[in-house]
Amino acid sequence: MTSNDVPAEWSPLTYRVLRSAGWYSGRSVPLDRYESRLREFSGLGMHDAARCFLGEFAGLSTADWTPGPLMPQSPFRLVPCDADTPREAGVEIREVVLRMSESAGAPLYPVGSVDEATSWLGMAADGSVFVGDGSAQLLARGAYEALEVLTVERRTDAPLPFVLVGDHLELPPGFGATRGPDGAPRWSPETERVLRLAGWQPGRAVSTEFWERTLQEADEGYAMHEAARRFLSEFGGLEVRERGPGVNAARSPFRLDPTSATEDFEIIEYLRAEADARLYPVGHLPRGSFYLTVADDGAVYVGMDEVELLADTADAALDKLVRGIR
Fold it and tell me: Which Pfam families match (predicted)?
């Protein structure tokens, strides 16, 4: 994609977020399912500005908070209504949009939602975008600018563990990453936050006996080496559900449970041969059904049809998985 394909109003971050959500230059979406349902249930007519915007962006969403430079930004969903929206919900949309239109001083058409679907995005016929749940605030004078604001600039409330510091949000004081034996942080504060929410804590140690026995009963080739035992003792059983754009790749949920590989020993053998290493399964990424494995030197690999070294250490691998780094 050339620079001419990127809207001038977008920062590199907004471009990356929208690309991760599924946008691409020249994207075109049929709108009949939205237009006919809203007209039938709410009497709202789609104007040309909304048709142009939704034709390019309808159906896109960010599944998690995006990393704005000043503060995290609320997820947004660019869907005027769902295909199975009942009549009652259509009437509610109409009432909210009419109140927003009165507040904005112009007829608005719904083009999406923000703040976990508690606020609506409405577009005027001149392309201006407003946000609100009754009263309307001007978000931007144009569609591309509105997406830039949603991704980078808009001030919103964020869930814990972020706290308000002046006019932006930060992790609470002292919420630093746990330090390793060398005194350096083991990973980023964001990874620390995600792992703690998943149930990890410093000094965590769980029994690996069940996993070791289950896999060895499935196939004698599943002999747990010490590096895998250390990994599973600290991280086994954790499940991370983070989604959305990461640093340079989409973040994917993952579960650290080796029993997911009990039916796929041939795949693990193939990955072992490709890596030329003693790999032991420690989890999987459901999206794409990729397996996570640990070599006897502690390196972490990911793969299915081919194998890739994710990181030389478990800590670095988890940081990459959580933050979306490849």
Answer: SUKH-3 (PF14433)
CA distance linking residue 44 with residue 292, whole number of Å = 49
Separation of alpha carbons 112 and 115, rounded Å: 11
Q: What is the pLDDT of residues 238-278, one digit of tens each?
A: 988 887 777 888 788 899 999 888 888 888 888 999 999 99
Q: State whether residue 212 is helix, strand or coil.
A: helix
CA distance 59 to 85: 15
Same domain, 117 and 200: no
How far, in Å, CA of 321 to CA of 261, rounded? 19
Q: Which residues are within 8 A (CB) of 17 and not within 5 positions of it... i.e. 6 or more apart?
A: 62, 66, 151, 245
Range of the domain at 28: 3-153
Q: Are residues 143 and 73 in the same domain?
A: yes
pLDDT, one tens digit per residue, over 156-200 is 444 444 554 554 445 555 556 788 888 888 988 778 878 887 888
Closest residue by Cα to residue 212 from 223, 199, 220, 203: 223
Q: Which of 263, 209, 275, 216 is nearest to 236 (CA)?
A: 209
Work out the end-to-end distance of the chain between its first and last CA atoms, rounded to an integer number of angstroms. Answer: 20
Q: What is the pTM of this model?
A: 0.50
Length of the chain as a residue count:
326
Task: State whether 7 and 147 are in the same domain.
Answer: yes
